[in-house]
Design brief:
By secondary structure, this protein is α+β, with helices and mostly antiparallel strands. It is built from 23 helices and 30 strands. The strands form seven sheets. Strands 23-19-18-10-9-8-7-3-2-29-1-30 form a twelve-stranded mixed beta sheet, with helices on one face. A six-stranded antiparallel beta sheet has the order 24-4-5-26-27-28. A four-stranded mixed beta sheet has the order 16-17-11-21, covered by helices on one side. The radius of gyration is 28 Å and the shape is globular. It starts with a helix and ends with a strand.
Length: 796
Amino acid sequence: MRKWLLRSLAVVATLAVVAIALAAWLLRGSLPDLDGTIYAAGLEGPATIARDAYGVPVITASSRTDLAFATGMAHAQDRFFQMDLVRRQAAGELSALFGAVAIDADRHYRFHGFRSVAREVFASLPADHRQLLSRYTEGVNAGLASLDARPFEYFVLGENPLPWREEDSLLVVYAMFLQLNDSRARRDVRHGYAHRVLPVEVYAWLFPDGTPWDAPLTGEARDVRPWPPAEALDLRTGKQRPAIAAVREPVPVLGSNNWAVGGTLTRTGRAMLANDMHLGLGVPNVWYAIRLVQTGDAPRDATGVSLPGVPLLVAGSNGHIAWGYTNSYGDWTDAVIVRPGDAPGTYRTPDGDRPYVLRRETIDVAGEAAVEYTVRDTIWGPVDASAGYPDGDIAVSWTAHHARAVNMNLLGLETAQSVNAALDIANTVGIPPQNFVTGDAAGNIGWTIAGQIPARRDFYASVPADWSAAPGWSGWLEPEAYPRIVNPPDSRLWTANARVVDGKALDTIGDGGYDLGARARQIRDALRASDSFTESDMLRIQLDDRALFLTPWRNLLLELLDSTKVSLDVDMIEYRELVRNWKPRAAPDSVGYRLVRQFRLEVESRVFNGLIAPLSDVYETLPVWTSYGQFEAPLWQLVTERPVHLLPEGYASWETLLLDAVRANLDTWDAGYDTPLSERTWGEVNLLDMRHPLSTALPFAGKWLDMPAVPIAGDSDMPRAQGSDWGASQRFAVSPGDEANGLMQLPGGQSGHPLSEFYRAGHEAWVRGEARPFLPGPELHTLKLEPAEGKMDASE
């Protein structure tokens, strides 16, 4: 018996060793070859992929299509699983990889039908752009085939990767639309609830179109509207309304900072551009740093960040111009009230009743039967059955649903020679509409909107609208009608997701939910505080975490907590002293910053929910939403001027409400924690949460797959916009033609493979705010690509 047991244990041990060895071999086998020569069908001439110490490739070829091929190979070597997830998300095809757990997500994304739209877009592209995507696709598939084993994620999931298709690159662009736009027109729907109930002057005051914090490039900051009189809104009704909702973290505004200064303010006479794009953070990072060098008769040399899945340089510098983006938050999505037609299954349009087009989507599910999902399409867009709007069904009219919204014209920026040329190109590109800021080697700077803008026929609203009599859109704005600014008198341009322009230009762009202007103002004031700039000066502004926005709230809090009110309350005394001695920055070790920030959120929640409480008298259910950035104007007005008729129910006075917010703040710290208040730092909650997609399903592997959960600086409403799982997905500062002195930062690493030397390379420097050179460093690895001349792909 004992011998049998020993033999069994030996067999089990041997099998375990073999299994571990096999797993290790498979993991190692999915690492790419970084050196040597690969013969690839599809190449016209030789190309090289030379990587530096961070894994950043310099890709060299004699034609743009060969550059695309080599870029596809590099992307696939380092990021194929990421690319696969992004295309599957946009197309609603995650269930085929992850199983039934992803069905709801797929339904959500299938609503938009992006797979079929992407096919339509590809078919309509110019021949040279189709060829570029085809060559990139060949490169991606060649890079995948060059691996000795499938990427490790597929081994874990028990699936095989599917080949890349040309349309998949367009799906990657649609994934950015999903991240940066209101894909369901929910802002219009939420505002519509309030607009139907509140008097006009109350609605306009509660949802202002700007605040004194604004720092636009044209026009001025907005004055605060007078608060409405009791005749318009009086909260002293005595009605029993729902309790105040729990305080929630505000949804971060994803969008970025960028600015430029003209050549009169730099040491070289060249313009200087800074850009840090704020997006959700994950492993690997959204962007992939790259340098593209084309030799021969049509030379180009462009460095910056690319988007894995797309063969273009998204933002960077080409020696003549530098360019970058922030999300524009213009009005690119409208909620259309659909009126039933006279016959069943029809709806009203300006041209008479039309039948709905029933789009049947089949969702493949790994290990289970496929699921059918049906969407009703209208001439304006698909009907969102989940909107639940009182006036009727809502169709979502979104620029992304139109083939016009996506193209490959971004390619032109890689060789643009001047600011005006760059602006002309930007007005034609097909991307989520962005604030585009550029500067050139001659010292010029400019701003415009990059992306397609719908032309509205005497129509603009931020609430659901009836288009059955007249359409809200009448086509697309022509490039010559786009707003632009070139060489402003003070040689400074800045954008930060807030309102940028005024007047006719603002009517053209609309308001899709601008951020509060505090961040833009802090950047503007920092730029105006100096008459000369270096790249290091730009980085200092990018890393500025001063709490200028919260300083008035800290002063209000100290006025509230005078010695009389807190004299017998030990906790209040400690709280007041921590606020008094705060470090006025969103620094990880700051306690006072965290207290002031939470106090403001507690107050905001009470006031906003109190103001919209009358809506519950009309609606049985309301959509859940937090206040928007512009609510700061009426909020601050109320807590400083304190009109009694606008005091939310349940409070005897405004002072009572504010003190209740302080007490709730203290209770939050007391609940479930043993550490004293004096140790409750901002870094305790602002911990980096940058995870690999598989770490949730494989928690034991989180330490291996995820970036370290370390305290980080920054917050909303300041240039260093940073939260646990969102923030600066890149930072750079560069002058075109002086790229050698430029700076670059990226979270995470270039590679998505945890065994790669590049998996975390540069990440710690990003956490600390230390920049590396903008240009890639000396070559450490060089992979040569040679045409296979009809032979099967092989590597040496």
